Amino acid sequence: MSAGRELGRRAARALAVDDRxxxxxxxxxxxxxxxxxxxxxxADRLAVIARGGGTRLDLGNVPRxxxxxxxxxxxxxxVEYEPADLTITARAGTPFIALQATLAENGQFLALDPxxxxxxxxxxIVATNASGPCRLRYGTARDLVIGTRVVxxxxxxxxxxxxVVKNVTGYDLNKLYIGSLGTLAVLTEVTLKxxxxxxxxxxxxxxxxxxxxxCALTYRLLRSALTPTAIEAAPADGxxxxxxxHLGDRRVALDRTVRDITAYAAEAGxxxxxMLDEDAARDALDLLRAEPVAPEGGLRVRxxxxxxxxxxxxxxxxxxxxxAGLAHDIRASSGVGVLRAAIAPxxxxxALVRALRALVREHLGTLVVERCPTAMKAEIDxxxxxxxxxxxxxxxxxxxxxxxxxxxxxFLGRL
Length: 415
Fold this sequence. Notes:
Elements: E1 5-6, H1 9-14, E2 24-27, H2 31-44, E3 48-51, E4 68-71, E5 78-82, E6 87-91, H3 96-104, E7 108-109, H4 122-127, H5 135-138, H6 141-144, E8 145-152, E9 157-161, H7 174-177, E10 185-193, E11 195-196, E12 200-208, H8 211-223, E13 230-235, E14 241-249, H9 251-267, E15 272-275, H10 278-289, E16 299-304, H11 310-323, E17 328-333, E18 338-343, H12 349-362, E19 366-371, H13 374-377, H14 389-400
Parallel strand pairs: 2-4, 3-4
Antiparallel strand pairs: 1-2, 5-6, 6-10, 7-11, 8-9, 8-10, 12-14, 12-15, 13-14, 16-18, 16-19, 17-18
Helix pairs in contact: 8-11, 11-12
């Protein structure tokens, strides 16, 4: 029995991942079809890569094999939405923008705010643990996902968590699937916590003389009683850094918050403070959600470091890239210790990644290569050094994907 459509050469190339093209496509419309497709693939030992909108497939190592492109793009729709409970359940193929539009009708939103494209699906966002500037206040998918339904590598349908926020019974298996790149199971349904849309929102752009001053302002804000939604840093002219602070609250509270931030910024050496109008604020936040873009053949890395090491990591990236003659662009979510850097192609790019990864590890951080040429993926594990966690990861893989068909080789340690 075949659950997939055999592909011609052109169609197969359109579904390629890291220059590897599948033999079959399985475009599925419900959970039962997903289970049937994975049962078929397991029986024939066919390697499967699940995809929603196909917008985040650059992430991960080169697959060892790729036989079936399993599409959940048609597995969409809202299953249950209880505005009073602040929860929503959606099928994995639901477009992210459609889910947000449904929530907006009741003055609510999902606080995951990664850069999205028209085809981005909620399943793909959760499977890659994608997030954006709002994670400072609201957290990531690991904080917002409270229930999942999946199909494991042997075709078994499994559920974890629930559809109410206070469901705390048993182990939190949801977190196994978040960021797993589809290497354990295919997400078919997700239940998420949502939030009321703030009554008012304001965005400040503050020019700081350098990254150290920008981080000093960040630390002051984090130590205060203020609750900014996002604190993002981006390069300005020369060594200057623009700190964008987004706020959401009632008007009276926002007025007080803006006064406090203005005072803190002046004490930290701000060269200018601007309150952005609605259009400028939207453009600024869209730019901050977007990953820095590297030229063709370049790469993008994501560093996660302790908050106190953000300025150090920024300087290391900049100085080492300059020393290697590589153009670069850096962004930092300074309130949570996440930096992204786009690096132009060049002979020293791989050596730069290796050097930065070693340095970051010494400072209790990690470095992930989010995008790079396929040839570079053969030289380095883009997700980093698995360390002692590899044994646990191997056992989980054997439990959830006993035939090793789910995106083999894509995960940490080329699992």
